[in-house]
Predict the 3D structure of the following.
Amino acid sequence: MNPLDAALLQAHQSDDRTALVRLYTQAADAAQDVDASCFYLTHAYVFALELGHADAPTLHARLVANGRDTS
């Protein structure tokens, strides 16, 4: 298992949603294709929305830019 996957699992186990926003964003940035990237971005965005996290608008904009949302 790679370190990012291990960190994501640990963050889920400890319910560290701030870490999940950061880690899913990192996973999106490292993804090999746009579909995988948007999969991770969606997760990051959902956790960001739940937290009222400052990165939520940026994550949403990235999803819109990739045609995953039209709003």
Remarks:
- Residues 7 and 57 are 24 Å apart (CA to CA).
- The chain has a mean pLDDT of 96.
